[in-house]
Amino acid sequence: MEVIEEKGQLEEDYTQDGTVDLQGRPVLRSKTGRWKACYFLVGYELFERMAYYGISTNLVVYLTNKFHQGTVEASNNISNWGGSVWIMPLAGAYVADTYLGRYWTFVFASCIYLVGMCLLTLSVSLPSLRPPNCDVGVKFQNCPKASPLQKGIFFFALYIIVLGTGGTKPNISTMGADQFDDFDPREKSHKLSFFNWWYFTILIGVLFSTTLFVYIQDNIGWTLGYGLPTIGLAFSIFVFLLGTPLYRHKLPPGSPITRMLQVFVAAMRKWKLRVPEDTKELHELSMEEYACNGRIRIAHTSFLSFLDKAAIKTGQNSSWMLCTVTQIEETKQMSKLIPVLIFSIIPCTFGMHIGTLFIKQGMTLDKRMGPHFNVSPASLSAFTIIFMMIGIVVYDCVFVPVIRRYTKNPRGITILQRIEIGLVLNIVILVIACLVERKRLNVARENNLLGLHDTIPLTIFILLPQYALSGISDNFLEIAMMEFFYDQAPENMKSLGTACSTATYGLGGFLSTFILSAVADITQRHGRSGWILDNINVSHLDYYYAFVAALNILNFLGFVVVAKFFVYNDVKLSKSGLEMHATSSQDNIKFRQNTSQPDVKS
C-alpha cells in the first residue's frame, strides 16, 4: 500500500505541460524549472544585454566621430542594423520550432554571436581596420573616410551579430516562460509576473553598459570599450550552460508556418463546400489524445470562419486537404495578432531612431557635471533604465495589487490597456522633445553658435525629462508587447509569437530609415534649409519631432480600435486535459467565480 502511494506521489510530481529534459524524458517538477532554472537564464540575459547595449548604445558616436558619417547616414545605418537585429528572430524561431528546438538553436546562435563580437572588437582595435582620426581644425566634410575594406569588416561583424541574436532573442525568454507549468497553480501565478522581473534583471545589465562601457569608450578607448562586452558575452554563455540540468524543454512541434499554410491551402481547395452547422462534424481529435501529448485543444470560434472549411471531412486525409479544428484555431490566433503587430510598428519606429537623435542633441550641449567630469550623451540613457526599473517595481508591487481590487483581473489591467498607456506616454515624450529642441535652437541663434562643433550654453540635463519618461513608457509598452505576443500565441507557436514581438522593432527600424531619409530629402528641396542636416544646430529637429508625434497620434487611434475588438485566449485546465476558449475584452476583466477550475487570463 505504501509503495502504491509513493508511486502515485511520484507520478503527480512530473510536469503536466509536456515538458521534458534534454534527452526527451519527462521531468520532475521539484527538481527542474521554476525560478531556480530561470536564475541561469536571467544570468545569461543580464550579461548578454550588457554586451549588446555596450555596442549599440554608443554606436552613433563611433560612426560619427570615427567613421566620419553624417547625421542621416549614421542614423540610417543604425536603424537598418537594429531593424535586422529585431527581425532576424523570425528565422531563429522557425529553426527552433521546426528542427533543433529552443535549447540547441540558442547554443549554436550564441557561438555565432560571440564570433561577431570578437571580429567587431578586432575592427576597432587594429589600426589597419579603422579609419585615421580627423585632424583638429579640419572640416567634417574633409575628414578621411573609411576604406571599403574597413567599412566592410566593421559592418560584416555587425551583421554576424545579427545572425547570432536571431537565434537567441526568440528562444531565451520563451525558455524562461517554459520553466513554469500552467497545471500547477503556484507556478502559474509566478508566470504572470515573470516578464516584469525578467525585464527588470535585464535592465541591470543595460544600466551597467550605458554607464561604465560608454564612459570607457568615450574616455579610455574603443578597444577596451568593445573588448569588455565581448568578454561579458562569453561569460554569459558559460552561465547559460551551467543551468542545463535544471531546464525544462518543449519538443519541436514542427514548422508553425507549414501548419498555417496547410490550413489556408486546405480551405482554398474546399472553398465551394459549406461548413456544417454542427461544428462537431468538423475534423478534430479527442481531448485525451491532446492530453497524452501535453498539448492544448482549442475550441471552435466563429472568427475567420472561411478557414473552417479546412476541417470539412471529404474522405481525403492528406494534411494539405484535412486539418483539425485546433490547427485551424492556431492559425486564427496567429492571424488576429497581425493587426496588433501592424499598429505596434510606428512606436517602435520612434524608439529606433529618435534615441539616436537624442544623443546627437546631447553632443551639442554643455556636458560638464562638476569641475572635472563630463557626461557622455549616450550615458543619459541610463536614466531611462533607472526609471524603467523603478517603474517595474512600482507597477508589480503597488499598481497591480491596487487596480486588481477593482478590475478583478490577475494582471490588474489587460495587456492591451498596458500597451495603450505606453503609446500615450510616447506621444508626450515627443511633445517634450519638440519643446526642448526649440529651446536649444533658440539659445543657439541668440548666441550665434551655429557651427557644427559649437557647444550650446545649455546643460545636457535639459534632456533628462524625455529620457526619464522614456523609461516609464517602456515599462508599459515594451514589457507588455513581449508578454502579449507570447501569451496570445498558440501553445505550439510560442517561439514564433515571441519573434513577432521583436519583428515589430525590426520593421520599425526599416520604416524609420525610410521616414528619416524621406523627410531629410523632401525638406531640402527647392532650396530650403532642411529639417535634418549633419549640423543639427541649423536643422529643425523640433519640426521632425512634431511630425513623428502626429504619426503616433494617428497610430494610437487605430490601435484603440483594434484593441476594442480583440478577443483574448482563455485556457481552461481540467483533469482530462487543456482546452482553450476565446473571451471578449470585456469578459477578460470579469472575475471568474468558480475558482475550482483555474484559468489563464490575459
UniProtKB/TrEMBL annotation:
GO terms for cellular component: membrane. The chain crosses the membrane at residues 103-129, 149-166, 196-216, 222-242, 337-359, 379-403, 415-436, 456-477, 498-523, 543-567. The keyword Transmembrane helix applies. It is a multi-pass membrane protein. One of its GO terms (molecular function) is transmembrane transporter activity. It is found in: Membrane. InterPro entries: MFS_trans_sf, POT_fam. Pfam families: PTR2 (PF00854). The keyword Nucleotide-binding does not apply. It comes from the Eukaryota. Keywords: Membrane, Transmembrane, Transmembrane helix. Belongs to the major facilitator superfamily. Proton-dependent oligopeptide transporter (POT/PTR) (TC 2.A.17) family. PANTHER family: OLIGOPEPTIDE TRANSPORTER-RELATED. This is Protein NRT1/ PTR FAMILY 5.2-like isoform X1.
